[in-house]
């Protein structure tokens, strides 16, 4: 467990229904630029540069009892063993009533987290914001990696409980699959009602790959893709998520090696603050 704690982490024990921040510093399947294993610590350090108060949500971390539980142990593991360790750690926290906000690491961490959560919330909906589809059946000879993670998750929850936004990169086959299964949704100022309808009051898991943001807004990620969201698009989504039953979230794919100004880590920290506040609501 790192000594550095996320801003405002005041609780010393897991409280039922309250947020728990968990780091998952996994970076074993990167295929372009590795370094996401450094992100949990970088995000915690950068959180010292922001305020506990969110003007957007009119909420303050000082009013939310949450604990920073440190990092899951994924050191020296194969991909399969690391994912099993994350699932076991998440399941133990969930049994104590935690509402998880998880820091990646690579996007593959979402698979074991969904496995743990689906046992408690069998009707859970996954909202996937990303530049990439992550729907390949295999990638570079492996079925467990950052490019296959959402496909593996659909084998657990099915495509009807998957909503994908911000996607602008993938294979022809992946885009055909999204169209056939109706998972892809455009996000703009007119989309809120449709997103509410598709969530339909069910418990929600939000997985955020930071490369959904345009490189002009956040470039410190392994696979940046032009044409993405800007921070105001993210804020509009946060306002909507405030009205949902969001029970967990993760933020993945920050690469501190590509972040000399630390603006990527600061942006990620602000996002994590908003997610802690949303998940920490008593809804």
Automatic annotation (TrEMBL):
GO terms for molecular function: agmatinase activity; metal ion binding. Its EC number is 3.5.3.11. It comes from the Bacteria. Binds 2 manganese ions per subunit. Its cofactor is Mn(2+). PROSITE patterns: ARGINASE_2. It is an enzyme of class 3 (hydrolase). InterPro entries: Agmatinase-rel, Ureohydrolase, Ureohydrolase_dom_sf. Pfam families: Arginase. Keywords: Hydrolase, Manganese, Metal-binding. The keyword Manganese applies. GO terms for biological process: putrescine biosynthetic process from arginine, via agmatine. Mn(2+) binds at residues 107, 130, 132, 134, 209, 211. The keyword Metal-binding applies. Belongs to the arginase family. Agmatinase subfamily. This is Agmatinase.
């Amino acid at each position: 467990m790192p000594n550095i704690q996320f801003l405002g982490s005041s609780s010393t024990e897991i409280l039922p229904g309250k947020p728990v921040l968990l780091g998952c510093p996994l970076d074993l399947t990167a295929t372009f630029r590795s370094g996401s294993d450094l992100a949990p610590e970088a995000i915690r350090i950068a959180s010292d540069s922001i305020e506990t108060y969110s003007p957007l949500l009119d909420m303050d971390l000082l009013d939310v009892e949450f604990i920073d539980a440190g990092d899951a142990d994924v050191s020296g593991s194969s991909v399969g063993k690391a994912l099993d360790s994350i699932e076991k750690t998440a399941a133990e926290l969930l049994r104590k009533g935690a509402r998880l906000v998880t820091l990646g690491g690579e996007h593959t961490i979402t698979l074991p987290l969904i496995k743990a959560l689906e046992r408690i919330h069998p009707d859970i909906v996954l909202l996937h914001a990303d530049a990439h589809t992550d729907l390949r059946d295999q990638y570079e000879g492996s079925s467990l990696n950052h490019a296959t993670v959402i496909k593996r998750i659909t084998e657990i929850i099915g495509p009807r409980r998957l909503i994908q936004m911000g996607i602008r990169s993938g294979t022809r086959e992946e885009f055909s699959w999204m169209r056939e299964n109706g998972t892809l949704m455009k996000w703009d100022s007119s989309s809120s009602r449709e997103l509410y309808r598709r969530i339909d009051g069910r418990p929600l898991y939000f997985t955020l790959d930071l490369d959904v943001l345009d490189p002009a807004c956040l470039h410190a990620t392994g696979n940046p893709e032009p044409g993405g969201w800007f921070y105001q698009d993210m804020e509009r989504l946060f306002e909507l998520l405030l009205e949902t039953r969001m029970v967990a979230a993760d933020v993945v794919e920050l690469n501190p090696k590509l972040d000399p100004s630390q603006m990527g880590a600061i942006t990620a920290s602000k996002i994590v603050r908003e997610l802690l506040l949303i998940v920490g609501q008593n809804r």
